[in-house]
Every structure is written in structure tokens, then in C-alpha cells.
Write a structure and sequence with these properties.
Elements (H helix, E strand, L loop, with lengths): L4 H9 L9 E3 L7 E2 L6 E10 L10 H18 L3 E11 L4 H17 L3 E9 L3 E10 L15 E5 L4 H9 L7 H12 L5 H7 L5 E5 L3 H11 L3 E5 L7 H18 L5 E6 L4 H7 L2 H4 L1 E8 L3 E6 L2 E2 L12
This protein binds adenosine-5'-diphosphate (ADP) and magnesium ion (MG).
Adenosine-5'-diphosphate binds next to helix 1, strand 4 and strand 5.
Length: 321
């Protein structure tokens, strides 16, 4: 028997994610009622995933559910904010109960991990497309923005960018790697880890922050441009995972670290006089981040290798070009 829209919502999306005391009314009425903590600034973001554009259509449903929330959590992390409430607009070619159960579990597990309640949404029929809207809160005036950096600020990135691009290539069977690295790299694409704890801590240290979704070089350039600056990255300083290095060699791994997409890491600037306090409070080995360069006055984003500027054919994935 085909699922009605109402049964589908009731069965798969009624009690997804965390139960929060500040949800006056969740899934089921015409709209949700939320009670932000008094005096907090509301943070809002939304991201759409289109099958065949943002993920291969045959990805595991759990990975699609995870990703739909993760990309939004990553935006909230980059603002240094706390995520709270999510809305899910789901367009499905058909109501497949097994697929829906897996999708909701993937989204729900990540939501609970970060204390996010699913409070509403919309369900329609059409080509597979998922939009999540995520709301959060942050102490007023304390959010991390892209436009707060100054010339001379040190530039950092979390994690090991490039892994997800290799993972996508593996999923699409465009890449072969030694078997011991395959599952790990694939996971890095299928289940990105939004850096919420780091983002919240960075409110104390960072002058600007952006999440890396379209390639590190391009996104570092966006942060720099928003601050009226340019970015200089050091080739030798780019962090590359052991798996990525083993999979494609050090040279190609660094190119992927700069230009591959889907990392969902944080790229952030720290004033030079705050760097030692940052390192003391958040030891880089424990928190997983590395210095990759410096912000400076000349516009643009460039990579220095042994004193000369490297040339790149493109500096990030773009949808309309
Ligand atoms: P309306 O016709 O008023 O938009 P819907 O039938 O679309 O109502 O939705 C009924 C309730 O279910 C609403 O509270 C809505 O927020 C929620 N909802 C619909 N689809 C989803 C979904 N995919 N995930 C979570 N909540 C949903
Ligand atoms: Mg509706």
C-alpha cells in the first residue's frame, strides 16, 4: 500500500533528532513554535542537495540524510554558533519506506549528536532533492564572520582537506587506491564531520572564519576578499592525510587539498598576537588544525612554493561557469 504524505511524515519525521525543551510545538501543526534563549542572536542558514549534482543518486540513503544536515551544521560551525532547530524540505520520486527509514536514521543520528531537533518541513513528489534549513543561536555580536580579518593575520585550516574529493572519486569509480585507504576516504565523502566544537571555541581567538565546501583555495580567497584582503598559502604547509598521500602521491594530494570540494572543514584567521594563546588553549594535534598561510593586502588567493607563486587552472568548484 503506498504511503500517504501524512503517514510518511508521522512514521519517519515525527521524532527525529534531539528532544529540546525550547520547542513549543514541533512537527504536526502548520508551523513550529521555538523559544530562543533570551538575548541570544538567531543564526539561520539553508542548503539544498540535488541528486546527481551534490551527491551521486545511488549513495546510501543514510549518507544522504547525514549530508543534508552536515552541510548546514558546517555553516553554523563557521559562525561559531550553537545549532538548535532544523526544517526539512524533501522532494522524492517515490515513497520508499526502506529508503526513508535509512535517510531519517542518517539525519537523526547526526542531529542528536549535535542537540538539533527536527521541528518541521515539507514533503513533495519530484526528482530527489533535499533542503534543510538550520537555525541556531550565538551570544550577540560574537558570531564569527568572514569579514573580520586584518593583514598579517595567520590563516589556518582544520582537518585534512582533499580527502572528500578523493572519496567522491572512489564512490564514482574514477580513482583506485591501495585497499587499506579505500573505506576511510570513501567515508570522508559520505559522512562529513562538521566542526562545531572547534567553531564555538574559535569565538575566543579567530578574527574571521569560513567553512570549506568548494575547495580550500577558493574559500580562503572568499574569506580574504570579505575582509578586503588577499590570502597567501604555503604549499609545504598544506595538511595531507596519510591515506590521501598514499592514494594519489604528495603532489596530487596537495592539489586536491586546494581545489577539491566537500571538505566541510573550517578555514580561519587569527591575529598574530593571539596565535600562542590559540595553540595553548586548543592544542593543534588534539583539535586537528594547521597553519597554512597568512592574510595580506594584495587581493586574490595564491599558493607559494619555494618562493614562487604556483598557477592553478581553477580555484574551486562552481555551479555556473
Ligand atoms: P501544510 O500543508 O500545512 O504545509 P504539511 O502536510 O506539509 O502541512 O505538513 C504537516 C506537518 O508536518 C507540518 O508540521 C510540517 O512542518 C511537517 N512536515 C512535513 N514534511 C516534513 C518533513 N519532511 N520533515 C519534517 N517535518 C515535516
Ligand atoms: Mg506543506
Amino acid at each position: 500500500m503506498p504511503l500517504s504524505e501524512q503517514t510518511l511524515i508521522e512514521r519517519f519525521f515525527r521524532a527525529v533528532g534531539a528532544q529540546r525543551g525550547d520547542v513549543g510545538l514541533g512537527v504536526g501543526d502548520d508551523a513550529a513554535l521555538l523559544r530562543p534563549a533570551p538575548g541570544q542572536e538567531l543564526v539561520a542558514t539553508t542548503d539544498t542537495l540535488v541528486a546527481g549534482v551534490h551527491f551521486p543518486p545511488d549513495c546510501p540513503a543514510a549518507a544522504i540524510g547525514h549530508r543534508a544536515l552536515a552541510v548546514n551544521l558546517s555553516d553554523i560551525a563557521a559562525m561559531g554558533a550553537e545549532p538548535c532547530w532544523a526544517l526539512l524540505a524533501l522532494t522524492l520520486p517515490q515513497a520508499d519506506a526502506a529508503w526513508l527509514a535509512e535517510f531519517a536514521a542518517g539525519l537523526g543520528t547526526l542531529a542528536r549528536e549535535h542537540g538539533v531537533a527536527l521541528v518541521g518541513g515539507d514533503t513533495t513528489r519530484g526528482p530527489l532533492c533535499i533542503t534543510v534549513q538550520l537555525l541556531g543561536q550565538v551570544p550577540p555580536g560574537r558570531a564569527l564572520r568572514r569579514d573580520g580579518a586584518h593583514a598579517g593575520d595567520a590563516l589556518f585550516v582544520s582537518g585534512t582537506p582533499g580527502d572528500a574529493a578523493a572519496g567522491l572519486a572512489l564512490v564514482q569509480r574514477r580513482l583506485e587506491v591501495p585497499p587499506q585507504w579505500e573505506a576511510g576516504l570513501r567515508e570522508r565523502f559520505l559522512y562529513p564531520t562538521p566542526r562545531l566544537a572547534l567553531g564555538a571555541q574559535l569565538r575566543e581567538f579567530a578574527s574571521a572564519c569560513i567553512d570549506v565546501s568548494d575547495g580550500l583555495l577558493g574559500d580562503a580567497g572568499k574569506l580574504a576578499a570579505a575582509s578586503g584582503l588577499g590570502a597567501r598559502l604555503e604549499w609545504e604547509a598544506l595538511p595531507v592525510s596519510e591515506g590521501l598521500g598514499a592514494a594519489c602521491g604528495a603532489e596530487r594530494a596537495r592539489v586536491l587539498a586546494l581545489t577539491g570540494g566537500d571538505d566541510y572543514e573550517l578555514c580561519f584567521a587569527v591575529p598574530p598576537e593571539r596565535v600562542s594563546a590559540l595553540h595553548a588553549a586548543l592544542p593543534p594535534a588534539r583539535w586537528g588544525y594547521a597553519r597554512i598561510g597568512t592574510l595580506e593586502a594584495p587581493a586574490g588567493a595564491r599558493v607559494m612554493r619555494e618562493g614562487t607563486v604556483m598557477e592553478f587552472s581553477h580555484s574551486g568548484y562552481q555551479h555556473f561557469r
